[in-house]
What does this fold into?
Amino acid sequence: DTAVSQTPKYLVTQMGNDKSIKCEQNLGHDTMYWYKQDSKKFLKIMFSYNNKELIINETVPNRFSPKSPDKAHLNLHINSLELGDSAVYFCASSQERASGWKETQYFGPGTRLLVL
Amino acid sequence: AQKVTQAQTEISVVEKEDVTLDCVYETRDTTYYLFWYKQPPSGELVFLIRRNSFDEQNEISGRYSWNFQKSTSSFNFTITASQVVDSAVYFCALRSGGYNKLIFGAGTRLAVHP
It folds into this structure.
């Protein structure tokens, strides 16, 4: 009964490769996010999708392309991987209310990406 | 500008000590939300608490308590009678205005020694 799940948990790959990370939530939320945590533990938003529509794109290189096939899924595809892409990538989800009330974001377990 | 500052990079305590983790935030919005998340050594991010800007009541949950003070733009977190299992990195985060994202502080690494 995992709320937000990500696959794979670990990803080790060579520079220049293309890879994808998948995220699924079973909370019935309408908004999903990707955050990046660097080696110093700093967390920063990358993308946010609401009802499959991209609403935040935080100056992330074009090599990163999120895709949301439906409200419960948000995948992250990375082209031409670079050493600096090594990080932990967290998926999160929340329910955004029409009233404007902001709800809590719940995070997945993270995907540890190492680019060699 | 929106910003969260966690000035304490690392804190080391002995079990059963009380410890307070500081969080100072900046925002020009009148409506905002503050959060604390815990990241244990296993790496996941665990939600602890959320506070709205119009609710300054302090909260206690077991050994955890939170002190929200708008006058000083602070949202501090206290662990009473710390335990080894409390060892983790703790993040304070801000969500303000219509922005659909969390602004995280740099985190405070808490080490509780037996």
Remarks:
- Chain A touches chain B through 28 residues (CB under 8 Å).
- DSSP finds no helices and eleven strands in chain A.
